[in-house]
Structures are given as structure tokens and as C-alpha cells.
């Protein structure tokens, strides 16, 4: 059975359960009909622009836990991409 591996960041505004539910319907008349969708959820991580600290963001706090700076950038969590497609022959 074919398997499609998908990476979904927790900030990607996609609910994995809904995606799994829709997948069967939207893949029905395509070459991927009957394949399975495997979703890997990517946590939200950020990096501080001031002290370089990296951490996993839990909850709606967007300040550096190291130096309390508000100057941060998200380094993951917004992914929505197919990482691989496995085909059995
Ligand atoms: Zn910092």
C-alpha cells in the first residue's frame, strides 16, 4: 500500500484529523486512491534574535525565556509539505 508522508506544523492552521478524513475523499479518483496519509506534527520552535536561545514554544507566550526579549523568530511550526511518498511494488 502506498503511503504519503506529510509534515504539518502546529501553526499551519491545519487540523490533522480533518485532513485525514478529507484525504480519502479527495484522493479517490487519483493515482493515490487507496493510499494512506501519515501526518507528522511539527512542534513550534523559536529563536531569540538577541541571545540566540532556541526553544519549543508551548502556549501563546512569544518572548524569549532566556532574556525576556520580544525579538524572536519562528524556526519551525508553519510547515505544510509532503516529505515522501512510499510505493510498494
Ligand atoms: Zn533571548
Question: If you had to describe this structure to a student in words, what would you say it looks like?
Answer:
There is one protein chain. This protein has 89 residues and is mainly β. The protein has a single domain (3-86), classed as 2-Layer Sandwich (hypothetical protein PF0899 fold). The protein is built from one helix and six strands. It has one helix at residues 16-27, and strands spanning 3-9, 36-42, 45-48, 54-56, 72-76, 80-86. It has a three-stranded mixed β-sheet, covered by helices on one side. The chain has a three-stranded antiparallel β-sheet with strand order 4-3-5, with no helix packed on it. The longest helix has 12 residues, at 16-27. Residues 48, 50-51, 53, 64, 66-67, 69 line the site of zinc ion. Zinc ion (ZN) binds at residues 48, 50-51, 53, 64, 66-67, 69.
Topology:
Layout lengths: L2 E7 L6 H12 L8 E7 L2 E4 L5 E3 L15 E5 L3 E7 L3
Parallel strand pairs: 1-2
Antiparallel strand pairs: 1-6, 3-4, 3-5
Bound molecules: zinc ion.
Zinc ion binds next to loops.
